[in-house]
Amino acid sequence: MIRDCGEADFGAIYAIINDAAIAYKGVIPADRWHDPYMPEGELAAEITAGVEFRGAVASDQLAGVMGLQNMDANPGWDGRPVSLIRHAYVLTRFQRRGLGGEILRNIMALSERPLLVGTWAAASWAVDFYVRHGFRQVEAGEKDRLLQTYWNIPARQVETSVVLAGPGLDGDANP
Questions:
Q1: Which residues contact 9 (CB under 8 A, 6 or more apart)?
Q2: How many domains are there within the chain?
Q3: Residue 38 to residue 114: CA distance in whole angstroms
Q4: Of 92, 109, 116, 166, which has the fewest CB atoms closer than 10 Å, so is most exposed?
């Protein structure tokens, strides 16, 4: 079952993100890894900034989450506002069961906007996940521009990340 997440889910969202993000340790640049991967204050700030989470329930618990953030302040892709997929994680013990794909398909079906997602370039499993679901990796120069336009991340993270555009987004973005 896929459902909206609310305030009561904050602790579970925090636990899911930090459990699943352990996969990045030793993969992403060491200067970008910290423990916990996402502190509670950072998660709270993301939610305050408009990230809304959808979650997958398995074995009567929230087992995976994926955030969606509408970006209204920028003109977007081909003049249309975009939405960003943010913080997509599944608890380690529930991975490889299709939960992430279920949440992503749900978000894709509900979204009326073009979708963009940023992830670590070295996280090949994450890149492959989005490609399997119809996303395409944007060119390096476009990637830098999109990350600098839509994400609030340090230059080092821009250097080591990729952006993927959702199905149906052909051509260049025009933020």
A1: 53, 55, 62
A2: 1
A3: 26
A4: 109
pTM exceeds 0.85 for this model: yes
* pLDDT tens-digit map of 21-44: 999 999 999 999 999 999 999 999
| Region of poorest pLDDT, from 1-5, 63-67, 76-80 | 76-80
**One-character DSSP codes across 86-142:** EEEEE-GGGTTSSHHHHHHHHHHHH--S-EEEEEETT-HHHHHHHHHTT-EEPPHHH
- What single-letter amino acid sits at 145? R
Q: How many CB atoms lie within 10 A of CB 5?
A: 19
Residue 43: give its domain's CATH number.
3.40.630.30
Assess contact for 56 and 152: CB atoms under 8 A.
no
> Token pair for residue 21?
């993000």
